[in-house]
Amino acid sequence: MGSCLSAESRSPRPGSPLSPSLGVKKRKNSKKRPGSRNSSFDYRREEPLHRIPGRLFLNGSSEVASLFTQQGKKGTNQDAMIVWENFGSRTDTVFCGVFDGHGPYGHMVAKRVRDSLPLKLSANWEVNITSGEVLKEISLNTAGSMNSEDTFASADEELRPSTDTEDSEKQPEIFQTLKESFLKAFKVMDRELRIQPSIDCFCSGTTAVTLVKQGRDIIIGNVGDSRAVLGTRDKDDSLIAVQLTVDLKPNLPAEAERIQKCKGRVFALQDEPEVARVWLPNNDSPGLAMARAFGDFCLKDFGLISVPDISYRRVTDKDEFIVLATDGIWDVLSNKEVVDIIASAPARSSAARALVESAVRAWRYKYPTSKVDDCAVVCLYLDSDLNNISTAVANTKIKDPPASVDEVNTGTEKDEEVSGPTGLSHSQSLRSGKEILAEDSKEDGSDEVYAESGVEWSALEGVSRVNTLLNLPRFVPGKEDKKARK
């Protein structure tokens, strides 16, 4: 939506003021403690983000993932994506995410979250792991030194989820640890967007569907209406789609109830009765078509939140790949269609691109008078052994070799858009006492359903061919706001 140009999102040269390393120079003669583990957070101090091995954010692929984004017809591409292998210096761990910006500076918000959120998640993950180790040591040896209190006191107590003991025992330890890390990282990320001066986030924001895979454990943190879908096999060995996230839109009863309790309004316009939107109490703006997002601070006092819905899944031998994509894909293709397109791609390295191209064709065919939306796709293959492919093209030779990390991360300026003005275990942030998330999904995996008083609420209902942000509220900064900016 924005048209002004800025060099903010361009891949900067190392050492430049705009470098993702935040201008922090590498300290000379710095020595690490013996036995200390190099964390992904260390990269922020030592090396520009775009040079980190295993971190992909441009169109390309690796042995385990394929990613592709394409600008629509609405202006600057506001979608962003990332695949980060060896995440947190763990060889069996991958971080993936797609981000759909909206508003005049949505593209800048999406790229800022793409770059900063993984670092915050990794840092909080390490803190929580250390805290757990310390607590175990204290419980085993109560006579031990208590100087370690400082180690775990830094965790934000208000973000520790209040789950029942029985539920905690059912979940693996990594889920509990990463759940706390996700909650803290998302909160800190949104707080940083509010106070930083370089991007105006008052009427701009972004969605985020993020995933951490460690071994066979998958933890997903979701804000907004981007979506994650699993391609797996049923008992008849047929490829099916299982939706892993719920589209967090204002039409969901729990989301609408929260917004209305905070004096925000939820209603649809007459010419689009199927699209519920969030409005200010005394102003018919901004008309945001989602219930959770980073940024959009004009609505944060009226029910909009950035708390992620967190879910867990254990990978089985029948699970083949996970697709993360922005709503430019889901508005025109069903979950089953997406899974079939990925499975029938001639090569893993081109799977994401094939999906985006199919979505663009679907836009032109279904909605010839509408502008094609931006699209971003990350396809994570759960079987990293290229010789053991069980998709529909198992016997097809891979003609396109996966691009190396260097090839992917040293793209041209055209690749990085220039900036301008179900066996899921969900967190309690989504449910309320009145709503129950149905665990059973239909064969195509597309109907995650809410049930309240006998009324079914489909997670697939929502925005279609409309702008995420309808109107921008008129905001005149006062003296205090101008001082804060300075």
TrEMBL record:
PROSITE patterns: PPM_2. Residues 422-431 have a biased composition (Polar residues). The keyword Hydrolase applies. Residues 157-172, 432-444 have a biased composition (Basic and acidic residues). Its cofactor is Mn(2+); Mg(2+). It catalyses: O-phospho-L-threonyl-[protein] + H2O = L-threonyl-[protein] + phosphate; O-phospho-L-seryl-[protein] + H2O = L-seryl-[protein] + phosphate. InterPro entries: PP2C, PPM-type-like_dom_sf, PPM-type_phosphatase-like_dom. Pfam families: PP2C. Residues 64-382 form the PPM-type phosphatase domain. GO terms for molecular function: metal ion binding; protein serine/threonine phosphatase activity. Keywords: Hydrolase, Magnesium, Manganese, Metal-binding, Protein phosphatase. Residues 1-45, 146-172, 401-450 are annotated as: Disordered. Its EC number is 3.1.3.16. Residues 24-35 have a biased composition (Basic residues). Belongs to the PP2C family. This is protein-serine/threonine phosphatase. It comes from Ziziphus jujuba var. spinosa.
